[in-house]
Amino acid sequence: MKAFDNLDDIKDYEELKGIINVYMDQYYNGNESDISDYEYDQLMIKLKAFEKAHPEWVDKNSPTQKIGGVAKREAGVKVTHNVPMLSIEDVFTKEDVAAWVEKVKQMHPDACFSVETKIDGLSMTLRYAAKDNGGMELVLGETRGDGLVGEDVTANAMVIPDVLKNLDLDYDSLELRGEVYMSHEDFDRYNEQQENNGKKPAANPRNLAAGTLRQLDSRITKERGLRMFIFNVQSGPDELMSSHTKGLAMLADKGVSVVYNELCKDADEVIAAIDRIGEMRGDLEYDIDGAVVKIDQIAYRQDFPAGSKYSSGHIAYKYPPEEKEVVMESIEEDVGRTGKLTFVGHVHDRQTGKPARLCGTSVSKVTLHNQDYINENKIGVGGVYLIKKSGDVIPKLCGLVSEPEEVFKASTVCPVCGHQLVKDEDSADIRCVNPSCHAQLIRTVSYFVSLNCMNIVGFGDKYVEVLIQEGYINDYSDIYRLREHRDELIEKGLIGKEKNTDKLLDAIDSSKNNTPDRLLTALGIRNVGKSTASEIMKHYSNIMELMDADIEQLVAIPDIGQTTAECIYEFFHDADNAAIINRLSDCGVNMTMPENEQASDKLAGMIVVVTGSFDDYGRKDVENMITSNGGKCSGSVSKKPSLLVAGEAAGSKLTKAQDLGVKIVSIDEFLDMLK
Hints:
The chain is α+β, with helices and mostly antiparallel strands.
């Protein structure tokens, strides 16, 4: 690829813009990109350098001036709503629903009602404006906030597939309110990725959707797969604002994704619709926590105010919890990809002997969490328990009916590999710590080859899984023996054709030269992440020396506590783990730290925050400078740091640092400090 180093050549600048625009369209509007995120970022750095040198060249077509081109949005930009985004008043009985419907009918006998799924997500309003050449375009996406003031999340709204950037409607302006959510499939995929990377899974789809919508990087938002249904026209022309259901139908005809709704004439029809929605809960690809009932004639709604907090002319019926008595048939133990021992109870309905029916679905399994949970709830084979699915997808035990003869007790060895199980000191979890255990091998290998570990470019999860399944990888060291099977791999097409296979094998060979702090990170030792590994390897010349360290020596390292020291010691004194390290060494993987001539203690004792972007340096480059000169990096200004290095678009961290009186320096001033 062309270098684009001539900052005075406008032809190079225009060519670079064109290339980036192609890649941007691939990423934001297609399903894949021809280049890596790193390569894309490098091109953007070059473009910003051009524009810094020649600001007169910049126009609206530059990738730096368009959503998607500048991936980072500014956090915390407030937007005052044109129409307040209020809540809906909840009711919990069908009698209350019928009473509310009758109250409306008394004032407006011709009133009709829309009954809709109440999606368990978060609200967002979309503002559209007329385009000069006809139609409308999205100009703003805003979160609910406090109902009166929300946050600008336009960049992230743009990458949600259900959010139309353009509408085939000829209105001056239009505001649509809807619910942003995450499907069960995307939620499960995210949590699986988290577990594969040794990170904490999300608690529920709603919380994950909320966090995703507020991401600073719109690429992350797109990757996680948010969805959206429109459920209200906030403001618009009369043809959309007279009848709620007709307005939604008109939008649907234009390709807008609208909420499921039924038009009802009276209380009986409303309650019947609520029941139908309740029965279909189990078949939906997303969570709902009730059914919303709205007066269809929008003009009538103001006659039924519900206070300053709630929308007029709306109520939300919350489904009561369904409960069934079930018998515990058996308890299954398994090992997840993080090594954690998991427990699943197999149950049947006490009355029918068949799977229990809850919320329209058959339930035959319940999650039993951990041994503490099992003990507290007296769970064992033959016991009788209450289970419920109160608007949830996952069934839960909610009471003991009859105790079992014996409470279940977990195994002491891994049911997959037979390795001794270890109980976490800081939790009730029991886990297998054998990195060769097949149950967690995919996760550990994926983590080993990832960006922040051995950084084997092109070694994605797909290849990891197939190579493990085919028996080519049984532990980390086998990665470095894959070249021995080159011809066989090409013949089977497991990595692709000859070119792709050689490219991956070359990347594997290159990773042998990594510094051993990367290897230490990649081993997946509990409590040893990238920064901890980097700190440890400042005190040991090679991995083999570290393997001989005792707990007392490890605790003496700054920021290494007793628990972390014990995790390191136990890992290296496990015979299986030690054998893997020796095999890695035999394969030529570097175990020795290079002498760092640039290292110093100029930042010793200082906590430094890095924020914003820099023309000539990546953020990781700056953080490496900090740690190599004795400082410590922090991603937060919640505690007063010693210094903040601020680049372009520094955002809220800069503001907070100013408020706290933290010393703030530019990248040039920071570099001067290291001279």
